[in-house]
Amino acid sequence: MALFIISGVTGMTGNELVRQILHNQGSNNHILGFDNFFASSIDTVQDSLGDSRFEFFEYDLNNTEEMADLERRINEIKEDYDEVIFINCAAVVHTEYFYRVQETFETNVRGMERFLQQAIRVGAKKYINCSTSEVYSMNSWNDHGGVSENDYLTLSTVEHSQRTSYAVGKLLTEFFIKDAVDKDKIKGCSIRFANVYSKDERFPKHIIPHIINSLIADGKVTLLENSRKNRRTFLNNYDSCSAVLALCNSESALDGTVYNVATDEEITIIELVKKCGEGLGISDPEIIFSGYRKSDPERRILSTKKIREKTGWKPVITLDKGLSECIENYLEHKKE
Ligand SMILES: NC(=O)c1ccc[n+]([C@@H]2O[C@H](COP(=O)([O-])OP(=O)(O)OC[C@H]3O[C@@H](n4cnc5c(N)ncnc54)[C@H](O)[C@@H]3O)[C@@H](O)[C@H]2O)c1
Fold first, then answer.
1. d(Cα 280, Cα 57) in Å, to the nearest integer?
2. Which of 8, 63, 68, 311 can pair with 246 through a Cys bridge, CB separation 3.0 to 4.6 Å?
């Protein structure tokens, strides 16, 4: 029986974690979750709000008083649970914000670190840190099974793009958690997700909702010039969350190190548009290329051998299944 503390709980990862913790993980777990609605809304957890095991707070990770209130609530109830687990999902995430260096630093680095200190103060047993596969930057693939957690990195820098500030910030958080675990203050790890998507994404900033919503609107889609060549793998948020919980349940894996979480199903962005078109009954959709993003690797393939071996986790949602759920859901919302 665990008490989960989740930051960024109404975001794509957070809201699905709530569902999986309440429904798959045993009935007596309790969740204290908060979000400042920077990039989400209360709608995403509407289905869990009536559940007494889930308490939601509209709090900002960077607000000292609100975080002190959260800490008071944790201290009030923590003795009723076998363990306290912190999962830090709050972050300035979407690509358009990657270039906002100060905001990214405040939330993704300082906020993460303060949340870690809070976890240690309240005696939490585990802290899961969401890092990112963006840290692989310009060397994010190879032809022998994908990049591994212990590969050396080739980062683009300020000479190339401010975009890298997001990855560099996340990389620093990996050191914070490693340091805390090495000093026996807590158990934990960092996770490098690659391109997570969700059927419930209501704010279409990411590529899959962008493609589907554009095709639904007028049968065509505008892509960056990079998409003429780019390939990606896409991870359904059901699978990203099952990986987080698999790690929470595998104490020996929480050694302060890093885990790649991704699928092996690589697809070109152009094939992705065609696939979405097929799902919507549009054959050969029109693609307009406009704009170019610097420091965007052509491919991103991650080896997930480490998490599979340590926890037995594997993704279960194929891209075909995930895409058809997205299409069905977006069409449904269009009717509302
Ligand atoms: N989505 C991806 O493809 C992806 C890939 C790699 C890593 N990640 C990481 O996974 C984690 C979860 O990402 P996600 O996909 O759920 O993103 P998301 O943007 O959907 O969720 C992040 C949530 O954090 C909230 N938030 C932002 N600043 C906050 C603050 N100061 N206080 C409280 N809440 C705040 C946002 O409102 C949002 O609900 C993040 O750390 C992200 O960097 C995501």
1. 38
2. 311
Distance CA 306, CA 149 (A): 8
Using alpha carbons, list the distances in angstroms from residue 229 to 232, 286, 303, 321: 10, 17, 21, 24
33 CA → ligand 1 middle, Å: 13
pLDDT of res. 41: 93
Atom of ligand 1 nearest to the CA of 191: 7
What is d(CA 183, CA 89) in angstroms, rounded to the nearest whole number?
A: 23
CA distance 39 to 43: 12
What structural domains does the chain harbor?
2-195+235-262+301-316 (3.40.50.720)
Q: pLDDT per residue over 260-282, tens digit each?
A: 999 999 999 999 999 999 999 99
Buried residues in 73-82 as b, exposed as e (16+ CB within 10 A): ebeeebeebe
Give the number of other CB atoms < 10 A from CB of residue 277.
Answer: 21
In contact, 195 and 260? CB cutoff 8 Å: no
| Span 114-147, pLDDT tens digits | 999 999 999 999 999 999 999 999 999 998 999 9
In this structure, how many other beta carbons lie within 10 angstroms of the beta carbon of residue 294? 11
Q: Which of 64, 65, 89 to mutate to test the pocket of ligand 1 (most atoms within 8 A of CB)?
A: 89
